[in-house]
Amino acid sequence: MILVTGGAGFIGANFVLDWLAGADEGVVNLDKLTYAGNLDTLRGIAADPRHVFVEGDIGDRKLVADLLAQYRPRAIVNLAAESHVDRSIDSPEEFIQTNIVGTFRLLEAVRAYWSGLDADDKAAFRFLHVSTDEVYGDLDKNAPAFSETNRYEPNSPYSASKAASDHLVRSYHHTYGLPVLTTNCSNNYGPYHFPEKLIPLVIHNALAGKQLPIYGDGQQIRDWLYVKDHCSAIRRVLEAGRVGETYNVGGWNEKSNLEVVHTLCAILDELKPRGDGATYASQITFVKDRPGHDRRYAIDAGKLANELDWKPAETFDTGIRKTVQWYLDHQEWVGNVTSGAYQHWVGKQYGS
Ligand code: NAD
Ligand code: TYD
Fold first, then answer.
1. Would 341 be classed as within a structural domain?
2. In angstroms, rounded to a whole number, what is the distance separating the alpha carbons of residues 298 and 146?
3. Which ligand 1 atom is nearest residue 35's CA?
4. N or C: which end of the chain has fewer CB within 10 A?
5. Number of domains forming the structure of the chain
6. pTM for the whole thing?
7. How does pLDDT run across 256-304, given as a tens digit for each residue?
């Protein structure tokens, strides 16, 4: 089996669903079920004997040690994290707890388990840590995209906590020989994305007749990757990545936020026109900028492409269209995750 952490979140759930669709190997899925974790997403595999869901914290050493002893996984894929920049600005504490302390405790439990394996299992074992391009910080407009050798310059509590966890993972390889791999990916989008992040928030607000909030001038640039392509990259790195290495993952799709939002509005205008005939773009509203907002991220995924022969299956055009269609087809899922605590966050972040 493999142990996946954070497998009820956006990328984790897509990873678990895709894994079980493509392989016989089982998954132990450890997730704390924070506001971002949602069992509804995993409903289709609830009765699948290859999937064992465990509600719990990566920082709970006893629980993790027990799971490792019981299921004896050959690999860990660590996706559990606090992941939203705006929440990290509002209340950073949880980011330190989960992303730094939690990852540290997980590493300690895994180190103890791995030390006790026989030589062959020890050599074959992998700890794959999923991280972000945001650890590299802000990129000038004309600067080359981030490569794996770029200096870490995190600018938000979120990216700083992810950077710290990347360093811990690296140190466990360097010091103890733990066979680790790290991936640093750009912004994901796709099915089961919680509507606090730009793309699902805009789709959700557009359909609800609400404002589409653009921070600052909307000219900030992100590289966008369809979530299933991120999952295929993780599988490929797990399968063939060189131990101790980091791999950047990206979609070669740099877009400004305003461009992304206009694209979403145009697709919605086509697939689900507004009753009054107006374009959804009329709902765009410029709001106060995010403090410390990074202007540009861009990923050079050449190492992953050249060394491991990985490439994304979707372009931005195909992926974004699939995503909008998915949200139109899954309004019940959206309704379930946007009740209760979600309303509280939206009220706090955007007012009214
Ligand atoms: P998410 O917020 O949607 O999901 C995170 C999941 O982790 C949730 O299910 C949550 O319940 C769980 N979790 C949180 N704290 C936990 C803890 N202490 N113990 C166990 N489970 C816990 O996040 P995501 O977007 O799916 O991101 C997954 C990983 O990928 C994160 O490490 C993130 O930094 C990284 N990443 C995300 C993106 C992106 O665009 N979303 C891009 C690059 C990298
Ligand atoms: P987000 O989806 O939160 O991802 P990240 O901050 O990790 O890149 O935001 C993507 C971009 O969209 C980022 O530049 C901030 C911007 N943004 C808005 O303009 N309005 C919003 O309501 C949100 C949530 C994000």
1. no
2. 6
3. 11
4. C
5. 1
6. 0.98
7. 999 999 999 999 999 999 999 999 999 999 999 999 999 999 999 999 9
